[in-house]
Write a structure and sequence with these properties.
The protein has about 250 residues and is an alpha+beta fold. Helices cover about 30% and strands about 30% of the residues. It folds into two domains: about 5-100, no CATH class; about 110-210, Aminopeptidase (3-Layer(aba) Sandwich). The strands form two sheets. It has a nine-stranded mixed β-sheet, with helices on both faces. Strands 1-2 form a two-stranded antiparallel ribbon. The longest helix has 15 residues, at about 195-210.
C-alpha cells in the first residue's frame, strides 16, 4: 500500500487520541502521558512532533515528571516520529527497547455488516468481561477506566454466539481515518471466525463514517493475529514500526 509520511503520522495521532491518558502535558511538542497501571501507551511519551531544539533537555523534563510519579520514564518512538535520530539519543541515555509493534493498514471499502455482531457507543459489562479477560491483570483496572473516556465517534463491537459475547473490538474514527483497538476473543471461542465477524462489522461501520483508511497496531511476533489481519486485507506497515523504550 502506498502510504505517505503524513498518512503514518495522522494514523499515529489517532491511535494516541483513541486511547487517552488520564494526565498529559506537552514537552517541546512531545506528549507526556501518565495513567498508572500497566498500560504502556497511556504511560509513555508520544513523539509524533518535536518543537524544541534540545531533545536531551526535553528528556530531562520527561524524566523529572515520571520521577515525581514514582514511575519509570518510557518513550514511544516510531518510524515517522520526531526528531530524526531520537533512537541514538535514547541509546546514549541508557533507554532500553521493548517489543516491536507494527501498524497495519487497509483501504476501506463498502461492505455489508455480518450477522451476529452488535454495535454500541458504550462498552457494556459483557464486552468488558471479554476484553479485560484477555489482557494482563496489571492493565485491567486502568484500562477499564480508559474505556469510559474513549472519544466519539466510536463504536464497541461484540460478536454473540449462543446468547453471550465471545469476541470484541473498538473502533474510533476521525475524518478519513479510523483505528481498531481492543480486539479480543474468549479462549473457548477462538479459531471459529468470531474475530473476523467483528472486524467485518467494524469495517462496515467505518465506511459509514466516511473513513478511507483503517489501521491497527499489533505486536510483531504475534504471527496468529498478523495472519488474521492479512487475510482481512490489512497490509503490514513495516515502515511504521514502533517501540516503547524505557529508562
Amino acid at each position: 500500500m502506498d502510504l505517505t509520511r503524513d498518512d503514518l503520522r495522522r494514523m499515529e495521532r489517532l491511535h494516541v487520541r483513541a486511547w487517552p491518558a488520564f494526565e498529559t502535558a506537552l514537552v517541546d511538542g512531545w506528549l507526556w502521558r501518565y495513567s498508572g497501571g500497566g498500560s504502556q501507551r497511556a504511560n509513555s511519551v508520544s513523539t509524533i512532533d518535536f518543537t524544541g531544539s534540545d531533545p536531551i533537555a526535553a528528556l530531562s523534563e520527561i524524566e523529572r515528571r515520571y520521577a515525581a510519579k514514582a514511575a519509570r520514564a518510557q518513550i514511544h518512538t516510531f518510524g515517522a516520529g520526531a526528531p530524526s535520530g531520537l533512537d541514538a539519543v535514547l541509546d546514549a541515555r541508557g533507554y532500553v527497547g521493548g517489543e516491536t509493534t507494527v501498524t497495519m493498514f487497509k483501504r476501506v471499502h463498502p461492505v455489508a455488516s455480518p450477522e451476529g455482531v452488535t454495535i454500541s457507543d458504550v462498552a457494556d459489562e459483557e464486552w468488558r468481561t471479554v476484553y479485560l479477560g484477555a489482557i494482563t491483570e496489571n492493565r485491567r483496572a486502568v484500562n477499564r477506566r480508559i474505556l469510559e473516556t474513549i472519544p466519539a465517534p466510536r463504536a464497541f463491537f461484540s460478536c454473540r454466539r449462543d446468547g453471550r459475547a465471545v469476541s470484541t473490538a473498538l473502533c474510533v474514527a476521525d475524518g478519513d481515518c479510523a483505528v481498531v483497538e481492543c480486539v479480543a476473543t474468549r479462549q473457548d471461542a477462538r479459531r471459529q471466525g468470531r474475530a473476523a465477524s467483528v472486524m467485518g462489522a467494524l469495517e462496515a461501520w467505518t465506511g459509514r463514517q466516511g473513513a478511507r483508511l483503517l489501521g491497527l497496531q499489533v505486536v510483531e511476533t504475534n504471527r496468529a493475529a498478523r495472519t488474521l489481519y492479512e487475510r482481512l486485507g490489512f497490509v503490514d506497515g513495516t515502515v511504521n514500526r514502533f517501540w516503547v523504550r524505557a529508562l
